[in-house]
Design brief:
Belongs to the sigma-70 factor family. ECF subfamily. Keywords: Sigma factor, Transcription, Transcription regulation. This is RNA polymerase sigma-70 factor. This protein is mainly α. It folds into two domains: 92 residues, RNA polymerase sigma factor, region 2, helix turn helix motif (Rna Polymerase Sigma Factor, Chain: A, Orthogonal Bundle); 75 residues, Orthogonal Bundle (Arc Repressor Mutant, subunit A). The chain has eight helices and no strands. α2 packs across α3. The protein is elongated and about 85 Å long. It starts with 7 loop residues before the first helix and ends in a 6-residue tail after the last helix.
Length: 181
């Protein structure tokens, strides 16, 4: 293919018909690459569109001396598809929302949750006053370590130590079956 037959220089020059020609000429190639990289994913169509947008943006960078037009388009497509696949691998999986609204626990589950909360509150009441105070401020009032330190006059490190030691004691006593029964 000669330089005059290439569509990328025409796209770079702003020829509106060149984009249509590029899609007609290389659409099958890009679709095949996208399907190979993404399988039958619903993202294939979006990926193909991204590739052609990238080609439109970078058409001026094409150098017919360095590579053929098909090679350049394949290279751009592979890069975009690899980026898309990497990005999809990092994204957290989306979960569908349940059809029925989730409300507070019902029946026996609710009673068990209330019993566990009562046990935890009883064990919390058995802690040293300083540990109780900072844990209550953190859990019930939602204060940060810095805010608790400012309110109590304790250094931030001491606040963290009291919270950690207090929670360890609560966990140990709850796992040993202590507290309100």
């Amino acid at each position: 293919m000669t330089v005059t037959e290439c569509v990328l220089p025409r796209i770079a020059a702003g020829d509106p018909a060149a984009v249509t020609d590029c899609i007609a000429r290389y659409g099958g190639l890009v679709w095949a690459l996208a399907r190979r990289f993404l399988g039958n994913s619903p993202d294939v169509e979006d990926a193909v569109q991204d590739v052609f947008i990238e080609l439109w943006k970078n058409a001026a960078r094409f150098d017919p001396v360095r590579s053929s037009e098909a090679t350049y388009i394949t290279m751009i497509a592979r890069r975009r598809l690899i980026d898309r696949k990497r990005k999809a691998g990092r994204a957290p999986a989306q979960q569908a929302l349940p059809d029925e609204p989730v409300g507070p626990p019902q029946g026996r589950v609710r009673i068990e949750v209330e019993e566990e909360a009562a046990k935890a509150a009883a064990v919390l009441g058995e802690l040293r006053d300083d540990e109780q105070r900072v844990i209550r401020m953190a859990v019930y009032e939602g204060l940060t370590h810095e805010e608790i330190a400012a309110a109590t006059g304790f250094p931030v490190g001491t606040v963290k130590t009291h919270i950690r030691r207090g929670l360890i004691r609560v966990r140990e006593r709850l796992s040993a079956g202590e507290g309100v029964k």
